[in-house]
Amino acid sequence: MSPQLNKNQNCSFSEVDELMKTVQLAVHIPTFLLGLLLNALAIRGFSSFLKKRWPDYAATSIYMINLAVFDLLLVLSLPFKMALSNVRAPPPFFCTLVECFYFVSMYGSVFTICFISLDRFLAIQYPFLVSHLRSPRKILGICGTIWVLVWAGSIPIYSFHGKVEKYTCFHNMSDGTWSAKVFFPLEVFGFLLPLGVIGFCSSRSIRILVGRRDLTQDWVQQKACIWTIAASLAVFVVSFLPVHLGFFLQFLVRNGFIVECSSKQNISLFLQLSMCFSNVNCCLDVFCYYFVIKEFRMDIMAPRPSRAQLVLQDTMITRG
């Protein structure tokens, strides 16, 4: 056996794993408590608007409820994720179920935010042409499609650990999990394509709103909308870009492109940290919910605008 091969086999990740146990406790416990409370309140708040103000705010409310449900699903998976990460060879079915909930909620949020951004851009660019596309039935159909897609996309999770004898949940994935035919569709359709859509729609929406500065009497509200769009895009990138960069680096490790022990340890630490802190996104979304509900209440107290103005306003305050 060559010295280099022996060195790779003896590469230990115990220090990384011990450090991450402490970090997870410090991050996941407050994330769980806050996320559980705030997302439950968000679902209740938008459900109330959905019942009382149907159909004026239906499109935004349905999208927001769908996003909050995905965030709540991720929050509920965190205690099991922490517990199972410390158990050697846990029950395969239970481990797979928790991993499914975690990744379904992550990519469900990604796709929901993507469709929200696209919906808002089209409504800002073509407010009269797309108003009929924003009917509650069509929005419910889109959200239902998202659920079907993310659950169908979770099929590879069932073989995450393959025939690996010693494993822990969210660790020790089988070689097949890191094959190109599994990894690249995940990266392209699960992150790069949504990122491209969100980036394009957000930048175009901002450009359109800035271009209307001299043509509108409500520049203060539109300015706030611009900052909300920019902040939402930044939160999306900060939350999900490091995770998928970590996936790519781990793909290089598992396929033999990176073999140096210290590099593998650093990549493992980076990936686990990025996944840990990306979970905070389920709490950051709540700030968006707060401002949307605030805008709803301000609009209700204001004189009733025309139907076309409602369509434009409803989409401008939607999360991007």
Account of the 3D structure:
This protein has 320 residues and is an all-alpha fold. It is built from 10 helices and no strands. α2 (14-52) packs parallel to α8 (261-278), α3 packs parallel to α5 and α3 (58-84) runs antiparallel to α9. It is elongated and about 65 Å long.
In a few lines, what is going on in this structure?
The protein has 320 residues and is mainly α. It is built from 10 helices and no strands. The longest helix is centred in the first third of the chain and has 39 residues, at 14-52.
**Which secondary-structure class do the elements indicate?**
mainly alpha
DSSP strand content: under 5%
Distance between the termini: 54 Å
Uncertain segments are: 1-8, 300-320
Largest sheet: none
Number of helices: 10
Instruction: Using the CA coordinates, give the radius of gyration.
Output: 22 Å
Share of residues in helices: over 70%
> What's the mean pLDDT score?
80
The best one-word shape is elongated
Order of helices and strands: HHHHHHHHHH
Domain G-protein coupled receptors family 1 profile: 38-289
InterPro entries: GPCR_Rhodpsn (IPR000276), GPCR_Rhodpsn_7TM (IPR017452)
GO molecular function, one term: cannabinoid receptor activity
GO cellular component, one term: plasma membrane
What's the arrangement of secondary structure elements?
Blueprint: H1 3-9, H2 14-52, H3 58-84, H4 92-125, H5 136-152, H6 180-211, H7 219-254, H8 261-278, H9 281-301, H10 307-316
Helix pairs in contact: 2-3, 2-8, 2-9, 3-4, 3-5, 3-9, 4-5, 4-6, 4-10, 6-7, 7-8
